Amino acid sequence: MAHALSLGRRGMGRTWPNPSVGCVIVKDGRVVGRGHTAPGGRPHAEPQALAQAGDAARGATAYVTLEPCSHHGQTPPCTDALIAAGVARVVAAVEDSDPRVSGAGFKALRDAGIAVDLGVCAAEAAQDHAGFFLRQAEDRPWVTLKLASSFDGRIATATGESRWITGPEARRLVHGQRARHDAVMVGAGTARIDDPSLTVRDFGAVAQPVRVVVSRLIDLPLMSQLARTAREVPVWICHGPDAAQETRQAWDGLGARLFPCALSGRQVSARAVLQALGAAGLTRVFCEGGGTLAATLLSAGLVDELVGFTAGVALGAEGQPSLGAMGLDRLRDAPRFRLAETRAAGADVMHRWLRV
């Protein structure tokens, strides 16, 4: 199952709205087939592994990271493929939360005389498929908030200088994390000030994540990197209902996809943004700021994972904070996370936290 999980992780960021599933087929102690969900979500992992196994699949055990699908969509059910191949046993990590599948896949296999075991590496699989499950449960994607800051929590000096607080090893890890998410998201301020490309670089020819900008009035430069490349790598803009029609038309003409979202006070509603992204199929979003958007997501309880990169440099109180105002009066009201991982990133430290 550990091998199946590693295969499934290869497709992260490229299979939405489908989950990235891994499948390994074993017979007589030997791996005879393996596969993971293809880019775009099809073919699924099981038929690819079965095709590789061929006749060796008969009487074999299939290890899958998620319950095999049992409904007819754009492709036939994976349960039918497993039954037709003569697999004797299916070991699954977790049950599918999709109501079209949940439990029905296992029932179809058992009705065909195939032994089914559930729960192997369940915690790891649940984490890998968390975005897919969250979209089913709350109509929104999993949100990872990345913050790269000085030791005292600053992202720039008082004059705005910020390149580079962290080193090249940390930046390479960030690009790897971008690649494992369906989309990279920033606020309007970051898009204006940094003029980011928000692409995955230095990893060869890889599928690029969708680039999302949250901007109430779409007050974004029309000569920015995002604007110039919107037809090459998708740009989605989540804006308020009061964005000017001419501005909407300009970005639409550049190839951007626009999502009108309700307001919460004077800002675009963070929940409305995520629900719009979920409705569009996204399951995992990597938010890279800025401070206002990060604080809004945290205050709304919509950050599922924090990834921090901390550098051994101090910028002082005059430096720009990594988070905007959150209006907290009591410590008990602050959002809490539990530490999941700590590792060195060159001269910096990466720490990953999950919502409590």
From TrEMBL:
Binds 1 zinc ion. InterPro entries: APOBEC/CMP_deaminase_Zn-bd, CMP_dCMP_dom, Cytidine_deaminase-like, DHFR-like_dom_sf, Eubact_RibD, RibD_C, RibDG_C, Riboflavin_Biosynth_HTPR. It holds the Pfam family RibD_C. The keyword Transmembrane helix does not apply. Its cofactor is Zn(2+). Gene3D superfamilies: Cytidine Deaminase, domain 2 (3.40.140.10), Dihydrofolate Reductase, subunit A (3.40.430.10). Zn(2+) binds at residues 44, 69, 78. It catalyses: 5-amino-6-(5-phospho-D-ribitylamino)uracil + NADP(+) = 5-amino-6-(5-phospho-D-ribosylamino)uracil + NADPH + H(+); 2,5-diamino-6-hydroxy-4-(5-phosphoribosylamino)-pyrimidine + H2O + H(+) = 5-amino-6-(5-phospho-D-ribosylamino)uracil + NH4(+). Its EC number is 3.5.4.26, 1.1.1.193. NADP(+) binds at residues 148, 164, 190, 194. Substrate binds at residues 162, 178, 198, 201, 288. GO terms for molecular function: 5-amino-6-(5-phosphoribosylamino)uracil reductase activity; diaminohydroxyphosphoribosylaminopyrimidine deaminase activity; NADP binding; zinc ion binding. Keywords: Hydrolase, Metal-binding, Multifunctional enzyme, NADP, Oxidoreductase, Riboflavin biosynthesis, Zinc. Pathway: Cofactor biosynthesis; riboflavin biosynthesis; 5-amino-6-(D-ribitylamino)uracil from GTP: step 2/4; Cofactor biosynthesis; riboflavin biosynthesis; 5-amino-6-(D-ribitylamino)uracil from GTP: step 3/4. The keyword NADP applies. The active site is at 46 (proton donor). In the C-terminal section; belongs to the HTP reductase family. PANTHER family: 2,5-DIAMINO-6-RIBOSYLAMINO-4(3H)-PYRIMIDINONE 5'-PHOSPHATE REDUCTASE (PTHR38011:SF7), DIHYDROFOLATE REDUCTASE FAMILY PROTEIN (AFU_ORTHOLOGUE AFUA_8G06820) (PTHR38011). This is Riboflavin biosynthesis protein RibD. It comes from Thalassococcus profundi.
